[in-house]
Every structure is written in C-alpha cells, then in structure tokens.
Amino acid sequence: MFLASFSDYFSFELMWNRIPKLLEKLPITLELAGLAFLVSLILGLLIAVVRFKQIKVLSQIAKVFLSIIRGTPMLIQLYVAYYGIPAIIRLFGGDANVVPKLFYAFLALGIYQSAFTSETIRAALLSVDKGEIESASAMGMSYPQILRRIIIPEALENALPGLANSVIGLVKGTSLASTCGIIEITYQNQILAGRDYRYLEGYVALAIIYWIITIILEQLFKVIERKTRIPEQPVPINYDDNDNNDKGIKGFFKKHFSKKNKEKANVTVDTSF
C-alpha cells in the first residue's frame, strides 16, 4: 500500500522513460555552452591582459564592467540581451527577426562568465614567477619567445582548474536559456511535464543528466591537466655509483667521505715486477 501511494507522487519508470526524450535536446545545450565558453574565453582574456598590463583608461573601464556583470544576476542579463539587442537593432533600422534566439543566449551567458574567466586568467598570469621572465630576458629571449615558452605554459597550467569550473558553470547555466525561447533540456522537460503534470520525475532525470555531464567534463579536464603539466625539476643522480639510493646530497657525501670510497682512492698498483 505504501508503494502504491508512493508511485502516485514519484514513478521511477516514468523518470527513466523521460531521460531519452530529454537527451534529444542535449546537442542544443552543449552547443550553447560551447559558444558561450568561447565568448567568455576571448573576452575574459582581453580583460585579463588589460588589467595585467594596467592600461590606465581601459583598466578602469574593465573594473566598471566587471562590477556590473558580477553584481547582477545571470537571469536579468539574459532578459536584457533578449529584449535589449533587438531594440538596438530596430533603432538603427535593422530587422531583429533575422537574428537567431541562440545568439542572444550564448552572448549573454558568455559575457556573464567572462567576468569570472578574466579573473582566473589574470590570477594565472600573476602566478608566473617574474624571476623566470627576467632570466629569460637576460638570456636574450624576445618577448614572444618568453610568452610562448614560459608565460603561457605556466599560466595555462594554473588556469585550467578555474576554466574547468567555468565550463561546468556554463553547462548548468544553459538551463536559464529558456527565457530566450530556446528549447534545451530544461525547457524540454517543462514541455513534457505540461502534458501529464509529472514535473518531479523530469527534474530528477535532469539532475542525473547534468550530474553525468559534470563528471565527464571533470575527467576530461583532469586528462588535459596531466597532459599540460610542467614536469618538476629532476633530482640529480650520481651515475658513478650503481646504487640507486646514491642521489643528491646523500650520494655526494657517500662518494667523497665514505670509507669504501676512501679505500678505493688509496689503492695503488704494484708495478715492481
């Protein structure tokens, strides 16, 4: 009786049957997140460089921009983009109907995320040791060479965890794209649930889908981090001794001060015959 009453409120069978129908709109969700991340990466890189170089006027404009973007909800920015951009197009005599709805969504999501991506990139740039840059410059490297061989590899390694969070945040943020009339997986659930009024099963199915996507992205970025990780400085090895434990300072003292090596040094060859 308990199971019968429980099924009136939640059906596992309906939940599993809802997942394939939701996955039909998954390509739109991934496309939206990918385009938004590309916008956030380009814009965030420009803002990070401006603030890293401390360009006077542009740096102040960037600070105001970041304050506005981080101080307002993503949902409000989506509404502003959806209603504001067509108004600007009509103001200049254009036809706003030719612009796809996907454009408003990924532009708003990308601009919102760029405020956080820029701080991730700027922190990664600041983490590069200035001594390494000065040493490379003293060796005669040009700035493009320093950028390619030192700054970008080290900054990329430090920025990857933050960029991974940006991608995951954008995938989850696409659930708000329905405000622009885009039918992605969250809006698809609202359409399906409107037919049988079983919303809970659909939202649990959505949670499972988003959770699996997040796990896949986490593992993907872990692989990228391992591939791009800069190897640490290897410990010097004493190749004159076959003992694998004779490394570093221990090997140095063993080589020069141990009794075994002193006896080897004092060996003389009898050539009297």
Describe the structure.
It contains twelve helices and no strands. It is mainly α. It folds into two domains: 219 residues, Orthogonal Bundle (MetI-like fold), CATH 1.10.3720; 38 residues, no CATH class. Helix 3 crosses helix 6 and helix 8 runs antiparallel to helix 10. The longest helix has 31 residues.
Q: Please indicate the count of domains.
A: 2
Order of helices and strands: HHHHHHHHHHHH
Give the proportion of residues in helices.
over 70%
Give the overall average pLDDT. Answer: 82
Question: What proportion of the residues form beta strands (DSSP E)?
Answer: under 5%
For the record, what is the CATH homologous superfamily label of the largest domain?
Answer: MetI-like
Distance between the termini: 108 Å
Structural shape: flat
Low-confidence stretches: 241-245, 267-273
Number of helices: 12
| CATH third-level topology of the largest domain | MetI-like fold
Largest sheet: none
How big is the Rg?
30 Å
CATH architecture of the largest domain: Orthogonal Bundle
CATH class assignment of the largest domain: Mainly Alpha
Number of strands: 0
Alpha-beta classification: mainly alpha
Highlighted features:
single chain; 273 residues; mainly alpha; MetI-like fold; 2 domains; 12 helices; 75% helix; 0% strand; disordered C terminus
What does the secondary structure layout of this molecule look like, with pairings?
Blueprint lengths: L1 H6 L4 H12 L2 H28 L2 H15 L3 H18 L9 H26 L3 H9 L4 H31 L11 H12 L2 H30 L19 H10 L1 H7 L8
Helix pairs in contact: 2-9, 2-10, 3-4, 3-6, 3-8, 4-6, 5-6, 6-8, 7-8, 8-10, 9-10
